Amino acid sequence: MSDPIEFYFDFTSPYGYLMSEKIDELAAKFGRKVKWRPILLGVVFKATGAQPLAQVPLKGEYSKRDFARSARFLGVPYAMPAIFPIATQNTARAYYWLHDRDCARAWVFAHAAYRGYFVEGRDINDIAVILDLAQKVGAGDTAELQAALGSPELKDRLRTEVDAALAKGVCGSPYVIIDNEPFLGADRLPQIEKWLESGGF
Amino acid sequence: MSDPIEFYFDFTSPYGYLMSEKIDELAAKFGRKVKWRPILLGVVFKATGAQPLAQVPLKGEYSKRDFARSARFLGVPYAMPAIFPIATQNTARAYYWLHDRDCARAWVFAHAAYRGYFVEGRDINDIAVILDLAQKVGAGDTAELQAALGSPELKDRLRTEVDAALAKGVCGSPYVIIDNEPFLGADRLPQIEKWLESGGF
User: Fold this and answer.
1) Where are the beta strands (DSSP E) in A22-150?
2) Which pLDDT score, from 0 to 100, does residue A122 have?
3) Stretches in chain A below the pLDDT threshold 70
4) What are the residues whose beta carbons fall under 8 Å from the beta carbon of A136, sequence distance 6 or more?
5) β-strand B175-178 against B34-38: which pairing, if any?
6) Could you tell me if A64 and A136 are in contact, meaning their C-beta atoms sit under 8 angstroms apart?
7) What is the pLDDT of residue B54?
8) CATH number of the domain encompassing residue A13
């Protein structure tokens, strides 16, 4: 059995969202599972010196156009959120809290959060929105999650994940690692497919 | 007759080189011509605040791997030049000088320069190398080109082209414009193909 594919993403990353709608099906085609790992681009950008794409002169305007066109190209529903980018530390923490209890439910939550932001335009870092999403994906009583979101343990959990991602070379979102081979960007999907098909090229 | 596709690139851009090996054939499939426009990424980066990719922490290492893998993916010969990136203002000026005399020859020169750098590892900004390339593509007596390379007129010519590109929103290399629709990066080739096929999507 091959190792799972690692999929690093920030919940505010449009290209991460596009990858989230494609990677599992693609992996399954080749008998592979996917390990979802939300990270914080803000921390990554401190390491790389990059700015959020939408704020870069010239490139920002281009990017907004490219987000929507790339979604159409891939057949993924997409609506540019009115507030973009947003902080996502609460969303990512909720993911890991759910993950430690039921990883399948965390995966459903991640999908719901991504679609909540990039289709419905909800502020998915807002605690009330997170609890609503968690309840809808069957997390039951969310009081425990609400308490956990403010805890130092869960903050540390996310920090550890982001540090581990940086140590692996993660330099953007989405960042996919297949058997030590890294792929940055939703536009690397064709290369990912070829890699899975042929075991490298 | 449709307008030509505009193809903006810097001679030191690996993804620009990959595009240069693909765009004409793709355009021809849909009865379109391509207007090649070398620019200077250094000037673009001043406008966008970006750094040369290879010098960005984490992303630099990833990029070098991705350049070579993307070339293999596209079936384009590629060898990472020992000195990278390089200045390319002389190469770009030579292109425009040739272009104003014989645009077909300038196109052959551009291909030869790109391959000279990304296959043979030659310093294509070096005047002696430029004159050698120009002679090989049939530019005849290159003394006139050599004199022109130091002239304020040719410097102005390139500056005007780069300014015009910036005014069009060019924010990287390669940057392709098809009927006002911009595409950044060699990884947009599948979208470019779909766009040409369907007249937009």
Assistant:
1) 34-38
2) 98
3) 1
4) A112
5) unpaired
6) no
7) 82
8) 3.40.30.10
The confidence score (pLDDT) of residue A1 equals 62
Interface mutation vs chain B, best among A58, A181, A192, most B CBs within 10 Å: A58
Contacts across the A-B interface (CB distance below 8 Å): 78
Residue A192, both tokens = 């990912």
Are the Cβ atoms of A57 and B49 closer than 8 angstroms?
A: yes
Per-residue pLDDT reduced to its tens digit, A153-196:
999 999 999 999 999 999 999 999 999 999 999 999 999 999 99
- SS3 category, A78: coil
pTM (two decimals)? 0.96
And the tokens for B108? 């052959």
B26-75 tens-digit pLDDT = 999 999 999 999 999 999 999 888 888 888 888 999 999 999 999 999 99
Cβ distance B73 to A171 less than 8 Å, yes or no, reads no
> Using N-to-C axis directions, what is the helix angle for B89-99 and B152-167, rounded to 10°?
100
CB contact under 8 A, B201 and A62: no
Asked if A73 lies within 8 A of B190 by C-beta distance, the reply is yes
How many angstroms from the chain centroid is the CA of residue B4? 16
* Closest C-alpha among B105, B114, B107, B82 to residue B27: B107
> How many domains would you assign to chain A?
1
Which residue from A84, A61, A87, A67 is spatially nearest to A18, judged by alpha carbons? A67
Radius of gyration, CA atoms only, chain A: 16
Domain that holds residue B135: 5-198
ipTM: 0.95
Per-residue pLDDT, B90: 98
